[in-house]
Amino acid sequence: MKSFTKFKLIAAALGMALSAGAFAQNIKIGAILSVTGPAAFLGTPEQQTLQLYVEKINSEGGLLGRKLELVSYDDASEANKSNSFTKRLIEEDKVDVLIGGTTTGNTMAAVPLAERAGVPFISLAAGIAIVEPVKKWVFKTPHSDRQVVERVLRDMQKRGFKKIALLSETSGFGQSGHKEVLALAPTLGMEVVVVETYGPKDTDMTAQLTKIKGNPAVQSVFVFGLGQGPAIVSKNMAQLGMKTPHYESHGVASEQFIKLAGPSAEGIRLPATALLVPEKLPAGDIQKKVVTDYTKAFNDRYKVDPSAFGGNAHDGIMLYVDAVKRANSTDKEKVRAALESTRKFVGTNGVVNMSATDHSGLDLSGLRMLEIRNNDWTLIND
Fold first, then answer.
1. InterPro entries, per this entry (predicted)?
2. Spatial distance between the Cα atoms of 172 and 169, rounded to a whole number of angstroms
3. DSSP readout, 315-337?
4. 5 lies in a domain?
């Protein structure tokens, strides 16, 4: 009897030790990012931001007393790799949350896996299809392309531009923006009089721009693309002597675009987040502290200012941290429910108010209209 009692005590102690060990396991954050390939200028600051905040949170005691562990894979800007790495993160790495999908196409390749496995997935891409229709487990941090399009078209309206030319990239991002421009313009009393496209790897858009230049009705040009393409468009417009007002999407909201486009970027307008102009925000701006603190932390670590895309990752990990704290748990369903009930969360993209019918939670107030002047961002007060 004594030996049996002793065995039970040992077993109980062992069970307690195992339970304690299990409780102390790291919280695994799975990331699928485009650190190489055409979207690398988006994915690299996202990767750097996640690493920065995992280390920062751990240095401050972790989350619910547990350490965060970043498990990250580079999908090389390829949707099929995004799918396979998502599968690995879910089935082999057993992550608690998925953050990533640098582009809309790569996000959509991962969505079915996250939905089927019941893992919270916070996308860093903008496509409206990511959250419309609403998917139970999927959320996203940047403004949607629909919101970006509306912000641009309304600025055109204020300047009296009613007839526009649309030049969009044939990528998933470009196609989504293309669709939104054609759908929204007529509702605002505007007409898209020229529609042209270019491929993500194209190195010259002179032919498309010549058609746009040849139409005297065009009052402004809206370019919707990522990476080097928009910079090439800008240079080609300068080479053709085009003086038509030029708008870009948030897909070029980084210092790299200004460097790539050079002098041809002068006068271009685009919608972007407060993160690009933290020092130019008024003292009472609700986002000023968040974007200033993030800019300083990123600059201290990497010696460069962050881009809006790094800001997407900042909001992604901080939304997850906020949800875990409110749920007081890493249970996936509890965290999902907490994400869905996020209210008044101030991020780099704006103030987030999610609901069962809105898994983005942003409105147009978070999009600031900027103009490039003298190789720098200028905040347009409107």
1. BCAA_transport (IPR051010), Leu-bd (IPR028081), Leu_Ile_Val-bd (IPR000709), Peripla_BP_I (IPR028082)
2. 8
3. HHHHHHHHHHHHHTS--HHHHHH
4. no
Report the CATH number that the domain containing residue 98 is assigned in CATH.
Answer: 3.40.50.2300
In a domain, 38, yes or no: yes
Residue among 209, 241, 203 nearest 222 (CA): 209
Residue by residue, DSSP assigns 215-236 as: -TT--EEEEE--TTHHHHHHHH
Query: Domain count of the chain?
Result: 2
Helix then strand count (H, E) for the chain reads 12, 14
Distances (CA, A) of 113 to 55, 66, 86, 87, 88: 28, 26, 7, 7, 10
Q: What is the pLDDT of residues 82-138, one digit of tens each?
A: 999 999 999 999 999 999 999 989 999 999 999 999 999 999 998 889 999 999 999
Would you put residue 67 in left (φ > 0), alpha (ψ -120 to 50) or beta? Answer: beta
Neighbour count for residue 306 (Cβ, 10 Å): 29
- Average model confidence (pLDDT) for the chain? 92
Domain end, chosen from 242, 272, 302, is at: 272
In this structure, what is the dihedral angle of CA atoms 119, 143, 101, 66, given to the nearest 10 degrees?
Answer: -50
Maximum C-alpha span of the chain: 99
Q: Is 19 helix (H, G, I), strand (E, B) or coil?
A: helix
SS3 189: coil
Six-digit token pair at 253?
């909201």
Q: In this predicted model, what pLDDT tens digit does every residue of 359-378 receive, in sequence order?
A: 999 999 999 999 999 999 99
pLDDT, position 307 = 87
Cα 85 to the center of its chain, rounded Å: 19
Two tokens at 16? 């307690």
pLDDT in tens, 279-332: 999 999 999 999 999 999 999 999 998 988 999 999 999 999 999 999 999 999
- One-letter amino acid of 103: T
